[in-house]
Amino acid sequence: MRAAWLGLLKHSLNRVTVPLARSGHGPFALVRHVGRRSGRCYETPLLLARYGDDFVAELTYGPNVDWHRNVQAAGRCEVVAGGVTYEIDRIETFPTAAGLRAFGNPAAVVLRLLRRRDFRLLRVAASG
Question: Do you know which InterPro entries this protein is assigned to (predicted)?
Fold first, then answer.
């Protein structure tokens, strides 16, 4: 059931949100990652929060989704947010309270009501 739901999202909602995220308009960012088995490049639209120079992701569908597993395996990815591309050189587990603060209200209120507790910090690589 869960795999069917994720497939439906991938083939319907993502067709709308990927171009929106690429354009730099709207709330979505793109995570560009390489498949851990296929070697193929993928773009996954996500709602990310800024945390200083870095980004916070809430793992709505848990840590076993492909984008997260691919980034963990590669140790890197790119984030396109607001039309700007950021190199991410590591991903870390992030405390729930800090993740909720990063998203701010009203998003944090919704995340609390949905009992979301699984956050990741995507570290932007130092330039130069």
Answer: F420H2_quin_Rdtase (IPR004378), Split_barrel_FMN-bd (IPR012349)
Residue 88's DSSP bridge partners are 77, 124
Q: Exposed/middle/buried for 67, CB within 10 Å: 0-12, 13-18, 19+?
A: buried
Predicted confidence (pLDDT) per residue in 23-62, tens digit: 877 778 999 999 999 999 999 999 899 999 999 999 988 9
Is there a contact between 121 and 92 (Cβ–Cβ < 8 Å)? yes
pTM (two decimals): 0.85
CATH number for the domain that contains residue 43: 2.30.110.10
Cis (ω within 30 of 0) for the bond into 106? Answer: yes
Inter-CA distances, 86 with 15, 23, 50, Å: 22, 15, 12
Structurally, the chain folds into a number of domains equal to 1
User: Of 70, 75, 25, 54, which Cα lies nearest the Cα of 119?
Assistant: 54
**In terms of residue numbers, what domain contains 117?**
2-124
